[in-house]
Specification:
Distance between the termini: 34 Å
Helix content: 25-40%
Number of helices: 17
Structural class: alpha/beta
Low-confidence stretches: none
Strand order of the largest sheet: 5-2-1-6-7-8
Strand content: 15-25%
């Protein structure tokens, strides 16, 4: 069965997470991803545990469906190899600090002269322009500057980092749709283009309700715990033995919640709770009266009751519970495959379910430089030349 991006050639010089996540998804969709790893250490995430022998699980999770060549591009012969690989590539992606690609001789203008149709994507902490462009920027700094940390956590608490690398993944996802948009444009015009993408911008673009609050009312978003900024009740509550989520997020659901779930129809007449706007204005009082009722019984009492009434609700799962959940497993969001070092390995599955061009795991994450010889043979080098390059510490 064909895949959507078969025939798309991607040269990937990115490291750690944002860029590798992007190229992993392109590979999941069938692209030919050649991962250029820094000689002699490889991607920084290879040093991140847990490990089996010398191999990193962290690296394996973000680098399936790629081939690896470990290449010293600071030597002329190594740079020539990279330039040769670029000649017929569709996409080139890197996440150096601004200016580094130029110093290495692999900036957009240089590569465009070799391949005018090349789509070149640069991912950095702060972007290629602006007063912060030369700063080093990891995910946590991007969460800080984009305001995400200042609005995450419990009411009155200290700023809290998101539980996962949200700005890195936001940048990776943004890179995916930007590259695909540029590729569609290339199919129409034969023209490549440059994509400048920043972790800060990508995360900031996801703060939709928060920007509405500020631009529309001058309201600066602060931590709300699990509560929603513009809907109530839409948050977590503590039961007698745990926590559950309740989303009575419109008037129909609020009515069902009051009448069928908590059996408090009087709340429907309470002037504090008549509309969503009223409930947001009196959020603390609303939370208090709901909590007093929900806290009387166990989660196993409330969740079936909410479901029967048609009010969206659910548990707050620990991550291990998520990965063992019957629904998650039925959606094939945990997959099993064989890795040359790890042996049987579990990984996250594919979130998009295509009817005609499904994503699939064609190859496990590579060991460092696993495909150096294979890739060079495909591009015109012979075994003697490859052995010489290895002796010279270029591959």
């Amino acid at each position: 069965m064909n895949q959507a991006l078969e025939g798309l050639k991607v040269i990937d010089l990115s490291r750690v997470l944002a860029g590798p996540y992007c190229t992993m998804v392109l590979g999941d969709m069938g692209a030919n991803v050649i991962k250029i790893e820094r000689y002699p250490f490889g991607d920084d995430s290879r040093s991140m545990g847990p490990f089996q022998g010398e191999e990193s699980y962290s690296f394996a999770m973000a680098n399936r469906n790629k081939r690896s060549i470990c290449l010293n591009i600071k030597k002329r012969d190594g740079l020539d190899i990279l330039l040769k690989l670029v000649e017929d590539a569709d996409v080139f992606i890197e996440n150096f600090r601004p200016g580094v690609a130029s110093k290495l001789g692999i900036d957009f203008d240089t590569l465009k002269a070799i391949n005018p149709g090349l789509i070149y994507c640069s991912i950095s902490g702060y972007g290629q322009t602006g007063p912060y462009k030369d700063k080093g920027g990891y995910d946590i700094m991007a969460q800080g500057l984009s305001g995400i940390m200042s609005m995450t956590g419990e009411i009155g608490g200290a700023p809290v980092k998101s539980g996962f690398a949200v700005n890195d993944i936001a940048a990776g996802v943004t890179a995916i749709y930007s590259i695909l948009a540029a590729y569609i444009y290339k199919l129409r015009t034969q023209k490549g283009q440059y994509i400048d993408l920043a972790l800060v911008d990508a995360g900031l673009a996801w703060t939709v309700w928060e920007s509405a609050a500020y631009f529309g009312a001058g309201e600066v978003s602060v931590p709300n715990g699990s509560a929603h900024r513009v809907s109530a009740p839409y948050q977590g509550f503590q039961t007698k033995d745990g926590h559950i989520l309740i989303g009575a997020a419109n008037e129909k659901l609020w009515k069902l919640f009051c009448e069928k779930v908590v059996e408090r129809p009087d709340w429907l007449e309470d002037p504090r709770f008549l509309t969503n706007r009223d409930r947001i204005s009196h959020r603390e009082e609303l939370e208090q009266v709901i909590q007093e009722v929900i806290g009387l019984k166990e989660s196993s009492y409330w969740l079936p009751r909410l479901e029967l009434a048609g009010v969206p609700a659910g548990p707050i799962s620990r991550y291990n519970e998520t990965l063992e959940n019957e629904h998650v497993l039925s959606r094939e969001m945990v997959i099993n495959y064989d890795h040359p070092v790890f042996g049987p390995l579990k990984s996250l599955g594919f979130p998009t379910k295509f009817s005609e061009t499904p994503e699939r795991l064609n190859r496990p994450a590579p060991t460092l430089g696993q495909h150096s010889s294979e890739i060079l043979l495909e591009h015109g080098w012979n075994e003697r030349e490859i052995n010489s390059l290895r002796d010279q510490k270029i591959i």
